[in-house]
Amino acid sequence: MPIITLEGPKITDLEKRRGLVRELTDAAVKAYGLSQEKIIVILHENSREQVGVAGELLIDRD
After folding, report:
1. How many structural domains does the chain have?
2. Over residues 41-59, mean pLDDT
3. Are 59 and 49 a contacting pair, CB within 8 Å?
4. How many contiguous H segments (helices) and E segments (strands) does the chain have?
5. Burial 33-59 (b: 16+ CB within 10 A, else e)
6. Which CATH number belongs to the domain containing residue 37 in this structure?
7. pLDDT score at 22
8. If both were cysteines, with which of 41, 43, 59, 60 could 48 make a disulfide (CB 3.0 to 4.6 Å apart)?
9. 3-state secondary structure of 25
10. Which residues span the domain enclosing 27?
11. Is the pTM of this model over 0.70?
């Protein structure tokens, strides 16, 4: 079973989150030739307080 893990900012719109999972699943089905039931998608959502770039937290870059 392929597992797709995506790290990124929180998606507050539930329909957009559903769409993302659907599109990732569809791409994996096409690439692997497996059924949707075999594809696992895990979203790791990170707030701006938990991500640093160039030595700074994203929340401090605003």
Report:
1. 1
2. 95
3. yes
4. 1, 4
5. eeeeeebebeeeeeeeeeeeeeeeeee
6. 3.30.429.10
7. 98
8. 59
9. helix
10. 3-61
11. yes
Which amino acid belongs to residue 19? G
Residue in the block written with tokens 């989150």 = 17
Q: Which residues pair with 46 in a beta bridge?
A: 9
> How far apart, in Å, do the first and last CA atoms of the chain sit?
40
Contact assessment for residue 59 and residue 22, using Cβ atoms and an 8 Å cutoff: no
Q: Helix, strand, coil: what percent of the chain each, to 5? A: 45, 30, 25
How many whole angstroms separate alpha carbon 62 and alpha carbon 48? Answer: 10
Is the pLDDT reported for residue 61 higher than 80?
yes
